[in-house]
Amino acid sequence: MPQRRFDQAKPFVTLGLVLAAWLVLPVAVKSFLRASFFELQAPVATAASHARDLQEYWSLRNQSKQELILAGRDLARINASFELAVQQNTHLREEIRRLENLLRVPAHSDYRYEHARVVRRDFTSWWQRLIIRKGRNHDLPVGAPVVFSGGVVGRVTEVHAYTAVVELISSPGVRLAAVVEGDDRPMSFQGGVNPTFGTAQGIIEFVPLDIFASPDNTKRLVTSGLGGVFPAGLTLGQVVRVEPSTDGLFKTGEVRLDPRLGELTEVTVLVPVAREE
């Protein structure tokens, strides 16, 4: 009987010994083992991402010629609009650079745009992070801002050999300065505690008392540019509600984030580059 009880408790004893050994390991060893395990998993996730891209390619090949013609026509119109926007953007950049040199003001940071496919989303923390298919092989730095067509996605928190981890703006660990569109007074934005597969929301603090918002009269929240990480003017979300804080000096509120954050397939990493004099 004692031997039988020992055999039943043996797995739990082994697990306890493993946990105890893990707790006493140095931090450097834990970091090395964690990074090594991540690198071992990366090829499997990357291969699955390439397989999904190939599946999407062949599904598009099965489209009829008429559908492809219509899609090509719409794409040509969009490209024409973007070409005009690029020309205007180039002119505005040159004008900004001329004024900076004339007024001797600090230059804005320049960025290199690195487009990356999303490998997978961490299901244990759905609104906290995702993994992209580029890393040190494309010189991605830790802390680089990540954006998409709807605004800010998050920032790079880990860089591996050919993958990187992006912490989403919906994560409570992300905190940055923001402003309401049309107002230059900075506020504090932070990701909220969001349920898995639910609607992503954020929290805004230190809102001036003369700013009002409601579900029927939302305010667009954008990055302020303070801190030097995110460029100014990038969309964070829509302020849907504000109410006085406990101290009565400011307001706090809720920010509704872009629902497309939950279905991203491609993002852009803004890699800072040194501007030549």
Describe this structure in words.
The model has no long low-confidence stretch (mean pLDDT 81). The longest helix is centred in the first third of the chain and has 39 residues, at 65-103. The protein is globular, with a radius of gyration of 24 Å. With 277 residues, it is α+β, with helices and mostly antiparallel strands. Helices cover 35% and strands 29% of the residues. Strand 1 and strand 2 form a beta hairpin. It has helices at 2-24, 27-61, 65-103, and strands at residues 110-121, 129-132, 145-148, 151-159, 164-168, 175-180, 187-191, 201-207, 219-223, 235-244, 251-256, 266-273. The chain starts with a helix and ends with a strand. The protein has a six-stranded antiparallel β-barrel. Strands 6-7-8-11-10-9 form a six-stranded antiparallel barrel. Among the domains are: 2-61, no CATH class; 175-263, Beta Barrel (Thrombin, subunit H), CATH 2.40.10.350. It is built from three helices and twelve strands; from the N terminus they run αααββββββββββββ.
Could you outline the blueprint of secondary structure elements for this entry?
Layout: H1 2-24, H2 27-61, H3 65-103, E1 110-121, E2 129-132, E3 145-148, E4 151-159, E5 164-168, E6 175-180, E7 187-191, E8 201-207, E9 219-223, E10 235-244, E11 251-256, E12 266-273
Antiparallel strand pairs: 1-2, 1-12, 2-5, 3-4, 3-12, 4-5, 6-7, 6-9, 7-8, 8-11, 9-10, 10-11
